[in-house]
Amino acid sequence: MVTWSLLMCVMLVAALLGEGQADEPQCGIMGSSSRRRRDGGGIRIIGGEDAGQGVFPWQVSLQMNGRHICGGTLLSNEFVLTAAHCLRSTNAKLYTVRVGEWHLQSGSGQDVAVAEGGIRKHPQFNRVRGKRFANDIALLKLWTSVDQAVDLSGTHVGPACLPPALSSADYHDYRGTDNCWLSGWGVEDAQANQLADQLQKVTGSIWTTDDLNAAWGRFSRFLPNNAVGFGDTATEGGFSACKGDSGGPLVCPKEDGSGAYDVVGVVSFGPFRCSGKPGIFTEVAAYRNWIDEIMESY
Fold it and tell me: Which positions fall inside the Peptidase S1 domain (predicted)?
């Protein structure tokens, strides 16, 4: 009888502790309408193509005063990853995160506010002498959990996976990896200022360090240490991130063959007119420990 009573107490406590705590959805699951190729005739993202609804469920639109300013990556029901340079103000009330967005003009997604005090830029952002946009990474804590703000049944919202930390034994260097994807609502033309309405996508390989430095030539000394390169160097018919894509995700298939995707890079900066050199992305694995510390602190 004592044993049975003790068991019932343990079960009751466990139920109370779990009440109101929603399970995090499985990470890195791409929507089924993705085509694993690149059509050369597309536009937007600079050489991209239209993405189907829900193909990149982790893609969010970071908005300031109701206007899209940057992309971002949903990491969980409560956190979004983006670039530090996207956040010019520390006033969280100015920002919202739109999840499940597909067409910017129709506003098909759902806005979620950023929590007060929920803007966390990397403390060493832009503080490395001679390095452009060093440590260009930031986390946003959402005011309301996504699963409470949005009815996730039948929607196209879900997190990307985080890669193992650079310092861990499980670290995988994605440089040279094929079939990686960039998504965003960046401008259609580098000389224009018109964002794409429909979410864009493009697939390609991450540059090796040697090739990236060679492509940037004498300017490679300004590249941040923890960065990866992605994009075609062609001035005509190439593909690249551009204005409006900043902060957005570069994802690659996990090496375990599960079909899930890690967010490998965060769009940081690129060459003038978004062509001629690979775009530069903050390498997420180098900041995994920092990300974990912040997420666990709330």
Answer: 45-296
Smallest CA-to-CA distance from 122 within 86, 74, 75 is with 86
CA distance readout (Å), 104 to 17, 66, 201, 203: 39, 11, 15, 22
Residue with tokens 């995090």: 24
Q: 133 vs 85, 206, 223, 286, CA distance in Å? A: 8, 19, 8, 15
Cα-based distances in Å from 167 to 133, 163, 210: 22, 11, 21
Predicted local distance difference test score (pLDDT) of residue 95: 98
**246 included as an active-site residue:** yes
Sketch out the chain's domains with CATH numbers.
57-159+289-297 (2.40.10.10), 177-285 (2.40.10.10)
Q: Which of 85, 240, 245, 268 is catalytic?
A: 85
Residue 108 known to be catalytic = no
Closest to 171 (Cα-Cα) out of 254, 247, 258: 254
Q: Which of 146, 128, 148, 147 is nearest to 136 (CA)?
A: 128
- Considering the candidates 246, 262, 268, 275, report the single residue annotated as catalytic: 246
Q: Is 170 a catalytic residue?
A: no
Among the listed residues 61, 76, 136, 240, the single catalytic one is 136
Q: How far is residue 48's CA from residue 189's CA, in Å, rounded to a whole number?
A: 11
Q: What is the mean pLDDT of each run of 10 residues along the chain (298 residues)?
A: 45 42 78 48 54 94 95 97 96 96 88 97 90 95 90 79 97 97 82 82 95 95 96 68 91 95 96 86 98 96
